[in-house]
Amino acid sequence: MQYRKDKYGNDISVLGFGCMRFTKKGSSIDIDKAEKEVMAAVKAGVNYFDTAYIYPGSEAAMGEIIARNNIRKDINIATKLPQYLIVSRKAIDKYFAEELQRLRTDYIDYYLMHHLTDVDMWEKLKKIGIIDWIDEKKKSGTIRNIGFSYHGNTENFLKILNDYDWDFCQIQYNYMDEVSQAGVEGLKKAAEKGIPVVIMEPLRGGRLVNLLPEKAKKLIKENKKHYSPAELAFRWLYNQPEVTCVLSGMNSIEMVEENCRTADDALAGHFTEDDHALIDKVKEIIKEKEKVGCTGCRYCMPCPKGVDIPGIFRCYNAMYTEGKSDGRFQFAQTVGLTKEPAFASQCIECGKCEMHCPQNIPIRKKLKEADKKLRPLHYKIAIGVARKVMFRKAKVKKNKD
């Protein structure tokens, strides 16, 4: 197993175990199966295990596995504060105490503000008193590293990144997401600041394996290196020295073994010109189903009315390359749940964007098409409700509870 350094020089395995996808047995986690997979990973050198308060049963399962095998000192636990549920300082303490109890531990190695999509969410936590709370926990040793996980656009990612002295961060990143969400720009900016970056969704929830077009699968299989689709995606990530750890939701021994083999020898800078060419061809095949030829260059931005043009087009394309529900879910995360609305319906058809588009895309026309597909009535209602919940004003008491 290879290791890369965290902010303080500690070794982190380049492969992390994502605990969201433990196998279920009925309505609960199959703890015995999960234990075998976790322990196989530990034996192979994996030392970073990622869970969260809202992953059903995950923290408790991980706590039981740790207790059964006495491995607390051998691993790093990463879990997350459900910031979208927080309205007071007292609530922060409540959720954190519950997480410690579930995980059967008295400290968390890597603690994240979960699922930030906009800088306003971080500002809300600051008003409640999160910075003082973090300082207290770090001084006591109850939290050893503080970070945030992010789904949103690059601009808001950079604002959050630069607003606090973070120990690490976690972003969605893969060869199809180079220019979306935090993207390669966010990855490199974090690295420049010396902030380790943990990668989630390296396979886009398995879609870069199971839902690859047959032509792409055939191309990968026929390549002389005989990489599997998953191995190719992981190697692309490990090739980048800015990547600290890549999470994988492993739920079989075979998956653990394959991912550990890849993590053992995929050095930063090992990718050849042929490897990059293969990735480019795979991306071209995937994009054959896209509805808009947007490259995410952002020359069309900023829109005077705040429309996230490249973000909308990326999600519109995802509906046809990954599935309608996937595209709409990505839209909700990265466009629908930003503090300042960024919907296509805000377009006043000024045409400024089209003047700067190097692809000569009829942006105004395509925005209307995209909005119709991405926001059917039930999605409009759901996003509206979610916005009210996520951006409700925090109940800040004078004594900060």
From TrEMBL:
<protein>
    <recommendedName>
        <fullName>4Fe-4S ferredoxin-type domain-containing protein</fullName>
    </recommendedName>
</protein>
<keyword id="KW-0479">Metal-binding</keyword>
<dbReference type="Pfam" id="PF00248">
    <property type="entry name" value="Aldo_ket_red"/>
</dbReference>
<keyword id="KW-0411">Iron-sulfur</keyword>
<keyword id="KW-0408">Iron</keyword>
<dbReference type="InterPro" id="IPR053135">
    <property type="entry name" value="AKR2_Oxidoreductase"/>
</dbReference>
<dbReference type="InterPro" id="IPR023210">
    <property type="entry name" value="NADP_OxRdtase_dom"/>
</dbReference>
<dbReference type="InterPro" id="IPR017900">
    <property type="entry name" value="4Fe4S_Fe_S_CS"/>
</dbReference>
<dbReference type="InterPro" id="IPR036812">
    <property type="entry name" value="NAD(P)_OxRdtase_dom_sf"/>
</dbReference>
<dbReference type="GO" id="GO:0051536">
    <property type="term" value="F:iron-sulfur cluster binding"/>
</dbReference>
<dbReference type="GO" id="GO:0016491">
    <property type="term" value="F:oxidoreductase activity"/>
</dbReference>
<dbReference type="InterPro" id="IPR020471">
    <property type="entry name" value="AKR"/>
</dbReference>
<feature type="domain" description="4Fe-4S ferredoxin-type">
    <location>
        <begin position="339"/>
        <end position="367"/>
    </location>
</feature>
<dbReference type="GO" id="GO:0046872">
    <property type="term" value="F:metal ion binding"/>
</dbReference>
<dbReference type="Pfam" id="PF13187">
    <property type="entry name" value="Fer4_9"/>
</dbReference>
<dbReference type="InterPro" id="IPR017896">
    <property type="entry name" value="4Fe4S_Fe-S-bd"/>
</dbReference>
